[in-house]
Amino acid sequence: MKNVLHWNPPENLQGVEVTYTVQYFIYGQKRWLNKPECKNISRTYCDLSDETSDYEHQYYAKVKAIWETNCSKWTETGRFYPFLETQIGPPEIALTTDEKSISIVLTAPDKWKSNPEDCTISMRQIYSNLKYNVSIYNIKSKRMWSQCVTNHTLVLSWLEPKTLYCVQVESFVPGPLRPAQPSQKQCISTLEDPTSALK
Amino acid sequence: LQTLHLGSCVIITNLQKIQSEFSEIRDSVQANDQNIDFRVLRNAGSLQDTEPSDRCCLLRHLLGLYLDRVFRNYQTSDHHTLRKISSLANSFLTIKKDLQLCHTYTTCHCGEEATEKYRQILSHFEQLEPQAAAVKVLGELDILLRWMKETE
After folding, report:
1. What's the sign of the alpha-carbon dihedral A57, B142, B147, B42?
2. Using the chain's own numbering, where are the disulfide bonds (chain B) (predicted)?
3. pLDDT band at residue B37, thresholds of 50, 70 and 90?
């Protein structure tokens, strides 16, 4: 739930020093609120994560450009609903293996927090129906398959011994599409089958 | 499919389908809402913070509000939006029929809490002119769906 407002500079003001001011609004409340750290700034983004941290509310943001003695009209976002629209990061992945199987343990991502001292909230607590899309690659055969899982453990059985497999996982919540953020690929090799050594 | 626990009334519905259908028209509907400083479905009236025994009645009233005074009053020339509203209305009608069954078997009790919460929501709704109210409350459908999801 790291919510950053981005905008493009005005097209016809190349070479002119332009600054920007941002305000935000909580849907249903009465007035636009200032974000002091985003007043007369020259960058084209503003981190509104703290201001929009209550994901039950819905928000608007707007920005205007100021140059020389002029200022533009406000440009306003649509209604932003963090609960529905936030992008959910990938889980942490732990792999263990034996000759013919790989065990995958997934840990749900944590809610983003601006202050490391804040208590940690798992996205699982926010989205009880959080699921994972697990993609598995057999590097030797170049074969790939995917599985959708709800709980946090998955055992892949009937694998080939002494073979490198790579795993990549995405978190998702059933419902409207959200941009997905896959994990890094993690690879592990199944062990050698001791019985095959005896033949 | 999701199972909604509304006291002794338990119904199964497809919230994700409803949410996905609404998501297709959400931005355009919300963009038509000129009264962003006013909210009809407020956290105080939320379904999940209502006594389980009163949830069925409150939801039945809310669905009735959407069917009778939101979907019916929303005016647009955009055919895609009209089709989506029609589909949403059918989904709500199905849920309302299930709640009606609960009502028939006296598991949809209207207690003081449900009655008072709906009265407040209705008073917020009626502070706006009918068409503006329809636009606003249709734009708040994702709030209602969130409430319903919380009763899972």
Report:
1. positive
2. 9-102, 56-108, 57-110
3. very high
Contact between chains at B39 and A27 (C-beta distance less than 8 A): yes
CA distance A141 to A138: 6
Best interface-test mutation with A: which of B27, B135, B142 has the largest number of A CBs within 10 A? Answer: B142
Chain segment B40-82, per-residue pLDDT in tens: 999 877 888 888 889 999 999 999 999 999 999 999 999 999 9
Q: Which of A40, A63, A38 is nearest to A48 (CA)?
A: A38
Nearest to A172, CA basis, from A99, A109, A106, A88: A88
Separation of CA B146 from chain center: 10
| C-alpha radius of gyration, chain B, whole number | 15
Buried b (16+ CB within 10 A) or exposed e, B116-150: ebbeebeebbeebeeebbbbbbbbbbbbbbbbbbe
Let me know: does A20 contact A64? Beta carbons within 8 Å: yes
pLDDT digits 0-9 by tens, A18-29: 999 999 999 999
Q: Chain-wide mean pLDDT for chain A?
A: 92
How many whole angstroms separate alpha carbon A62 and alpha carbon A71? 14
Indicate yes or no: CB of A27 within 8 angstroms of CB of B31: no
pTM of the model: 0.84
Contact, B135 vs B74, CB < 8 A?
yes
How many residues in chain B?
Answer: 152
Please report how the helices B52-65 and B112-125 are oriented relative to each other, as an axis angle in degrees rounded to 10. 30
A78–B30 C-beta distance less than 8 A: yes
Domains defined along chain B, listed by start: 1-151 (1.20.1250.10)
| A196: confidence class by pLDDT, cuts 50, 70, 90 | low
Residues 42-81 of B with CB under 8 A from A: 42-43
**Least CB–CB distance from B16: residue in A31, A58, A174:** A174
Amino acid sitting at position A77: T
Would you state the structure tokens that stand for residue B124, as one six-digit string?
A: 């917020």
Q: Within an 8 Å CB–CB cutoff, is residue B37 touching chain A?
A: yes
Residue A195 has pLDDT above 80, yes or no: no
